[in-house]
Amino acid sequence: QVQLVESGGGLVQTGGSTRLSCAASGRTFSGYVLAWFRQAPGKERALVGNINWSAGTTYYADSVKGRFTISGDNAKNTVYLQMNNLKPEDTAVYYCAARREVLGTYNYWGQGTQVTVSS
After folding, report:
1. Closest CA to 8 of 118, 114, 98
2. What's the burial of 116, exposed, middle or buried (CB within 10 Å: 0-12/13-18/19+)?
């Protein structure tokens, strides 16, 4: 069983930066894909990006490419989402999620953390 706990977020001004953290307990991330999703009010949850923990490869949605970076700390079993040049449309609840590499469904989720970008 994997438990994910997010931290970070809060209120940020347009153009500002913030970093979210997602710490895992229960096992290491080896063999897993870790992702960040977000859900804005009235919208469906959308994939922001992910990282294949073993390969170190990343994917980003077009809307955040060049502004957001996903990285991981193996020793701390923590994945990060560095968000730069934030825009009001980045306002959302951000969720960390995990799935095994061989599976397509994210079956482990964090509780979510709010990021609000003021204009």
Report:
1. 114
2. middle
* Residue 40: DSSP 8-state: -
Q: Are 100 and 32 in contact (CB under 8 A)?
A: yes
Q: 102: phi > 0 → left, psi -120 to 50 → alpha, else beta; which?
A: alpha
pLDDT in tens, 87-104: 999 999 999 999 998 888
Within the chain, where are the H helices? Answer: none
Q: How many CB atoms lie within 10 A of CB 112?
A: 16
- Asked if residues 68 and 61 have their Cβ atoms less than 8 Å apart, the reply is no
Which tokens hold the place of 97? Answer: 């999620």
Please name the residue that has the structure tokens 């894909």: 33
Token reading at 33: 């894909």
Between CA 25 and CA 6 the distance in angstroms is: 12
* Tens-digit pLDDT profile for residues 11-36: 999 999 999 999 998 778 889 999 99
Distance CA 75, CA 85 (A): 28
